[in-house]
Amino acid sequence: MIKKSYDIVIVGGGPAGLNAAINSADKDVKVAVFEKDREIGIPVRCAEATSEEALKKYAFIDENSICTPYNKFEFVAPNKTSVEMDAESMRGFVLDRKIFEQSLARKAAQKGVEIFTRAHVLGIENDNHPLVKVLYNGEQLQVNCQLVIAADGIESRSALDFGIDTTLSLKDSEPCYQMTLVNMDIPGDTLQFLFSSEFAPGGYLWIFPKSNNMANVGLGLNGSLKKQASPRELLERFVEANFPQATMVNSTAGGVASAKNLNELVKDNFMVIGDAGRMTNGLTGGGISTALASGKFAGKKAREAILEGDTSVKKLKEFEKYWNKNIGKDYRRFYHLKEAMFKVKDEDFNNLAAKFENVPPEKVTVTKLFTTLLKRKPSLILDVTKVFAGL
Amino acid sequence: MKSSFQILEILKWQEKKMIKWDQNRCDLCGLCVCVCPENVFEMFEKYLTIDQDKCINCEKCSIICPVTALSIQSKEAVND
Ligand SMILES: Cc1cc2nc3c(=O)[nH]c(=O)nc-3n(C[C@H](O)[C@H](O)[C@H](O)COP(=O)(O)OP(=O)(O)OC[C@H]3O[C@@H](n4cnc5c(N)ncnc54)[C@H](O)[C@@H]3O)c2cc1C
Ligand code: SF4
Ligand code: SF4
Questions:
Q1: What lines the ligand 2 site, CB under 6 Å?
Q2: Which tens digit of pLDDT belongs to each residue from A111-138?
Q3: Is ipTM > 0.95 here?
Q4: What is the distance in A from the centroid of ligand 2 to the CA of A39?
């Protein structure tokens, strides 16, 4: 049963919320996670690729949740010329996210975290301390705590209750559609990125293998561009034309916030992390690694704050500063890179691919590709390897 | 008797369009929730709630929806 009070309430049981729980709880710090859906890990609205380095650094590697390891990238230009790149230093895994999140949940439970599914947070009042209103089993309950961590994903409304505006502009929102297809014949170790103003204006298509036979195939486009068809229709057309033999076992719409991180990540008694904090990589749309990283850093700081009895904004700013210095800074760069990429035309991609077509994969680097593509903006090119290392 | 101000308000209300949500198309991706400047939507596990009174008809939600589940229509069309 949900108790009347906890030290920390975490809204949302995705990778960000669960990792914050793991890093904040023990016998001295009581933590509850409220998740609105009935099961941790579903629905999966994600292409499920993330880097090995990020998993090791911010969480752990759970063998059971790995579908396939990848160590190559392939970039395909609109005219289908492709450039292969050896990505050993940025290698990672295509996960089964449901299994992965459930293993995060198990770990949290071992630390004494109480996880409640079908627990929808309706709103939070914050007078002297937060009072969380939660709809659980059809009943509206009120739960007291010292600190709230909002990890409620792209659909977050918790931050608004603390006066942080999370509204996204159309140009910073990417409507996506994805299918999981079987009966494919694809390299199991390669993440494919396809550029095409026809199918994914202002965004890209992805083919991420779950095995040699199965893949997450999807597309995301920039929300500010006028589109001839919805992402769903565009993907249907693409799949019909390119994988007529494939069969769909899952399909989902999704939204990516390709925004800058929020300026404010903390208030008195409040922190916001993961997609709710708009922490996605603006260029790739990847957000698992930042969800885990922000969960870890915020969780540790929250724990310290509870033990010191100081959950003031001044104390919690230590998390914000740490974040901005270590990760936020790079992610702002990715955002500017995204804006520059926006101006790249189909023919620029074709020319780029033609230049690199016969270069051996081990000689191709992300930096070389971007340098060639964005000649006019050399200031953006520094250290772009990080773009995919943090996928 | 209604004042002219009240009549104006009523006319405005009648003119105002409403959001029509097609539950069968909606995939609960959350994008409408985060682009709406007036906080009209809330996403539950299996449905959205829509606070029509707050809507300012900016159409951002219907533009962003990946599966065309939202449209802005006149009141009569929605109520039919
Ligand atoms: C189509 C698509 C493909 C993607 N592909 C990749 C990829 O390949 N690699 C990658 O790194 N990233 C990818 N991403 C991004 C990645 O999925 C997210 O960045 C990541 O899930 C963020 O984790 P999170 O914990 O912050 O949020 P989420 O995983 O969204 O979790 C938030 C949780 O909060 C719950 N919640 C929301 N509101 C409430 C409430 N009021 N009360 C209780 N619970 C609530 C939700 O039900 C949800 O479970 C993709 C995204 C999309 C849409
Ligand atoms: S944007 Fe469309 S699919 Fe996504 S939640 Fe809103 S209505 Fe549903
Ligand atoms: S039209 Fe604008 S104000 Fe109305 S619900 Fe849609 S996004 Fe919100």
A1: A 253; B 21, 26-32, 48, 65-67, 69-70
A2: 999 999 999 999 999 999 999 999 998 8
A3: no
A4: 21
Which of B29, B47, B51, B60 is the best substitution to test chain A (most A C-beta atoms within 10 A)?
B29
Question: Which of B40, B46, B67, B72 has the most ligand 2 atoms within 8 A of CB, as the residue to mutate?
Answer: B67
Domain ranges in chain A with CATH number 3.50.50.60: 8-47+97-167+260-334
User: What gap in Å lies between CA A113 and CA A16, rounded to an integer?
Assistant: 14
pLDDT for B1-58, tens place per residue?
Answer: 567 767 766 666 556 789 999 999 999 999 999 999 999 999 999 999 999 999 999 9
Architecture in CATH for domain B4-79:
2-Layer Sandwich (3.30)
The dotted CATH code for A67-94+170-257 is 3.30.9.10
Atom of ligand 1 nearest to the CA of A94: 8
Fold of A8-47+97-167+260-334: FAD/NAD(P)-binding domain (3.50.50)
For residue A171, report the distance from its CA to the centre of ligand 3, in Å. 16
